[in-house]
């Protein structure tokens, strides 16, 4: 799926895990193809 | 597109840190090999260690995607034995998306959630009774069919 401004996507996996731990949230990973 | 649908955005941002990985970029190949990626969209719900708690792939229209995503967060909570949060999300799927493809899964695991929360209660069979009447053609009806009497099958 294409990127969308309304979802605050991160693009660094390690940073997302660290942020999830700090915010006590899950990680929602979306692997997409832009084509 | 699915993501502009407000309930999808709300569900993702309320329960998770969202991350997107572009599978056309060479620099992502090692990571994608490591998670055995094969098809897009490839959605995973992970804990903060990167352990996978739920996954689904393939396009879904917005309401189906929202229902599936909520089921995913519910299962993530269930696997962590956070039963109250799991129960709340499964109930939400059944109230908001009762005709979705994810709804039978929500009802099946609502029973499981309540059973794991209170093994002495009768909620497992109560929810599975409801499943048989509401979603008789679903795979999840089959999953509970060992509890049906022979004449019910």
Task: Please give a handful of descriptors for the protein shown.
heterodimer; A: 35 residues; alpha+beta; B: mainly alpha; 52% helix; 12% strand; elongated
| Total DSSP E strands of chain A | 1
Q: How would you classify the quaternary structure?
A: heterodimer
Using CB atoms under 8 Å apart, which protein chain pair has the greatest interface?
A-B, 30 and 37 residues
Question: What profile does the largest beta sheet of chain B have?
Answer: 2 strands, antiparallel
Point out poorly predicted stretches of chain A. none
Number of strands of chain B: 3
Helix content of chain A: 25-40%
User: What is the share of helical residues of chain B?
Assistant: 40-55%
Mean pLDDT of chain A: 89
Low-confidence stretches of chain B: none
SSE succession of chain B:
HEHEEHHHHH
Continuous helix count of chain A: 1
Mean pLDDT of chain B: 94
Number of helices of chain B: 7
Please outline what is shown here.
By secondary structure, chain A is α+β, with helices and mostly antiparallel strands. Chain A contains one helix and one strand, in the order αβ.
What topology does this entry show?
The complex is a heterodimer of chains A (35) and B (153).
Chain A: H1 13-23, E1 26-32
Chain B: H1 6-15, E1 16-22, H2 29-34, E2 42-46, E3 52-57, H3 62-79, H4 83-96, H5 103-117, H6 123-134, H7 139-143
Mind explaining what this structure looks like?
The complex is a heterodimer of chains A (about 35) and B (about 150). Chain A is α+β, with helices and mostly antiparallel strands. Helix content of chain A is about 30%, strand content about 20%. Chain A has one helix and one strand, in the order αβ. Chain A has one helix spanning about 15-25; one strand at about 25-30. Chain A is elongated. With about 150 residues, chain B is mostly helical. Helices cover about 50% and strands about 10% of the residues of chain B. Chain B contains seven helices and three strands; from the N terminus they run H-E-H-E-E-H-H-H-H-H. Chain B has helices at about 5-15, 30-35, 60-80, 85-95, 105-115, 125-135, 140-145, and strands at about 15-20, 40-45, 50-55. Chain B has a two-stranded antiparallel sheet with strand order 2-3. In chain B, helix 3 (about 60-80) packs antiparallel against helix 4 (about 85-95), helix 4 packs antiparallel against helix 5 and helix 5 packs antiparallel against helix 6. The radius of gyration of chain B is 17 Å and the shape is elongated. The mean pLDDT of chain B is about 95. The interface between A and B is medium-sized, with 30 and 37 residues.
